[in-house]
Amino acid sequence: MLRFGRVVFLTQKTLKCGEINQRLLATAPQVATKHQEEPKAKKGAKESKSFTMNIFRGTVEASQVFPYPDVLTAEQRDTLTLLVDPTVKFFQVM
């Protein structure tokens, strides 16, 4: 790198060449040190009753999945069992 400075500024004043050499030699090479940062504590999973969020976590919040049958009237429950029972039987046979 010092030779390059001398070649480039050879046609100019030698004072200029000397200034470049001084500037290049002014800083001594130092070993780069990496500062180890303390690892950040991972945040725990935030508890949520969100159905979609819990599906991605691999858990199921029963209060989000099973409130539906409790809301039905007796007539709606009978209709649902009429639909579900044949479907379950069909998949057991298959």
What does this structure look like?
This protein is mostly helical and 94 residues long. It has a domain at 61-93. The chain has six helices and no strands. The protein has helices at 2-8, 14-26, 51-57, 62-65, 68-71, 74-93. The longest helix is centred in the C-terminal third of the chain and has 20 residues, at 74-93. It is rod-shaped and about 95 Å long. It starts with a helix and ends with a helix.
- Major beta sheet, specifics? none
Q: What is the rounded Rg?
A: 38 Å
**H/E topology pattern:** HHHHHH
- State the total count of DSSP E strands: 0
Structural class: mainly alpha
In helices, the fraction of residues equals 55-70%
Average pLDDT reading:
72
Shape: rod-shaped
Q: What labels would you give this structure?
A:
rod-shaped, single chain, mainly alpha, 6 helices, 94 residues
Summarize the structure.
59% of the residues lie in helices and 0% in strands. With 94 residues, the protein is mainly α.
SSE layout:
Layout: H1 2-8, H2 14-26, H3 51-57, H4 62-65, H5 68-71, H6 74-93
